[in-house]
Write a structure and sequence with these properties.
Strand content: 5-15%
Helix content: 10-25%
Largest sheet: 3 strands, antiparallel
Number of helices: 5
Number of strands: 5
Order of helices and strands: HEHEEHEEHH
Structural class: alpha+beta
Radius of gyration: 20 Å
Mean pLDDT: 87
Distance between the termini: 45 Å
Low-confidence stretches: 83-87
Number of domains: 2
């Protein structure tokens, strides 16, 4: 069996265990031992800098030692970023499996791995340690680009995409026209899961 090593982001999330709001306990650097030894901080803490995917998803608080200069003694996650700059990182095993599939809309084999939740506001899905394969779907670049634009408009207006614009007899298979802003607010929209949407219609 081939073991796939975890990234430093995955290791810290596993250790810190943030809640649904992206808030974790304080994690002392003394805990960076054993399987977590790769988290040992060097100059500036390379894996928790502002430019990293962890910092783009979470607000990171660092407690620096008074006695030992500028070194970091402990860290915690203090909530999710509100600017929509959440990490796009997807577990590598999930990526490989999704890329074997055909586009959920066009049926072609060249696909991108798409977050079904276009707002990417579910902490569980944005945590590569707790992601599930059903959180993602294969979309061609053209389909993914189109979805991205519709999701952007939905976020701006609060109104979900109406599938009747594509000729379908119903607008949504779950929920209504307004997006409630929650992590489950995308469910039932055509773009959330085109295959499930069409399967639902086939049963009517």
């Amino acid at each position: 069996m081939i073991l796939i090593s975890k990234t430093k982001k995955e290791l810290f999330l596993e250790l810190a265990q943030p809640d649904e709001n992206g808030v974790s306990r304080w994690v002392d650097v003394s805990e960076f031992i054993g399987v977590y030894e790769p988290l040992t901080l060097g100059n500036g803490g390379s894996w928790c800098r502002r430019s990293t995917s962890l910092a783009k998803t979470y607000i990171i608080k660092k407690d620096k030692s008074i006695t030992s200069g500028n070194s970091i003694d402990r860290l915690k996650l203090d909530g999710l970023r509100e600017d929509g700059s959440g990490s796009q990182y997807i577990n590598r095993q999930i990526q490989r499996e999704i890329r074997k599939r055909r586009c959920a809309i066009l049926g072609i084999s060249e696909v991108e791995v798409d977050h079904k939740n276009g707002r990417k506001n579910d902490p569980r899905v944005m945590n590569s340690s707790t992601q599930r394969i059903n959180d993602f779907q294969p979309l061609s670049k053209a389909a993914n680009d189109a979805k991205r634009q519709y999701c952007k408009e939905c976020k701006r207006s609060g109104k979900r995409f109406d599938a009747k614009e594509l000729g379908y007899p119903i607008s949504y298979i779950k929920g209504g026209v307004r997006h409630d802003g929650s992590p489950t607010g995308c469910e039932g929209c055509f773009w959330y899961d085109p295959i499930e949407f069409r399967y639902y219609l086939a049963k009517l």
